[in-house]
């Protein structure tokens, strides 16, 4: 059996609850004692949350980074359309995909945050599926866009790394929620 700090802390809290319950039995009327011990037990059970703090931090950081990513990509598309001979149909496609990606990102981050904080595997699973779609769109802007600048490569590589880390943490969180 491996040592887990959270399990030993939980055992300590149960012991403390037992001591408090004994004390309350000797000092309080029975109805008051039941209410207090029930409240203490509920607080201890709420202590065992399965939400992933690293995943939540990554969702927040990715939300902030995506605002930068969106603006930088939009400005680079405008720059490329002015400096290079950018075919109009590809310009419209790139802009449409960028805005679709922004909508997907907002939905993905909302569902991921909601699923993580409420410990709902369904919301987190949908967010994971949308993460795959967003990663495919990021690969489009990294590889298949009409003109790819070094700045495109850098910002898309960072975005893909965060998507990969989020996907791993989402899978771990979903596994914890199911168990």
Automatic annotation (TrEMBL):
Keyword rRNA-binding: no
GO BP terms in the entry: non-motile cilium assembly
Principal subcellular localisation of the protein: other
TM regions (residue ranges): 12-28, 63-79, 91-111, 123-143, 155-178
Superkingdom of the source species: Eukaryota
Localisation: Cell projection, Cilium; Membrane
UniProt cross-references to PANTHER family, sorted A to Z: GEO07735P1-RELATED-RELATED (PTHR13531), TRANSMEMBRANE PROTEIN 80 (PTHR13531:SF8)
Full protein name: Transmembrane protein 80 isoform X1
Membrane topology per record: Multi-pass membrane protein
Originating species: Alligator sinensis (Chinese alligator)
Pfam families noted in UniProt: Transmemb_17 (PF09799)
InterPro entries: Uncharacterised_TM-17 (IPR019184)
Keyword terms: Cell projection, Membrane, Transmembrane, Transmembrane helix
Keyword field contains Membrane: yes
Coiled coil ranges: none
Any one GO cellular component localisation term in the record: ciliary transition zone
């Amino acid at each position: 059996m491996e040592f887990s700090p959270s399990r030993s802390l939980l055992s300590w809290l149960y012991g403390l609850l037992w001591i408090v319950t004994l004390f309350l039995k000797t000092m309080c009327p029975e109805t008051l004692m039941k209410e207090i011990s029930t409240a203490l037990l509920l607080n201890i059970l709420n202590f065992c949350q399965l939400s992933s703090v690293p995943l939540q931090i990554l969702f927040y950081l990715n939300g902030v980074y995506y605002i930068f990513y969106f603006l930088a990509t939009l400005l680079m598309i405008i720059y490329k359309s002015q400096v290079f001979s950018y075919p109009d149909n590809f310009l419209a496609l790139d802009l449409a995909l960028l805005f679709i990606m922004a909508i997907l990102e907002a939905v993905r981050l909302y569902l991921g945050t909601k699923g993580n904080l409420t410990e709902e595997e369904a919301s987190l699973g949908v967010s994971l599926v949308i993460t795959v779609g967003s990663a495919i769109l990021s690969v489009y802007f990294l590889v298949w866009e009409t003109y790819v600048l070094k700045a495109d490569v850098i910002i898309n590589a960072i975005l893909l790394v965060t998507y990969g880390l989020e996907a791993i943490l989402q899978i771990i969180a979903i596994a914890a929620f199911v168990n």
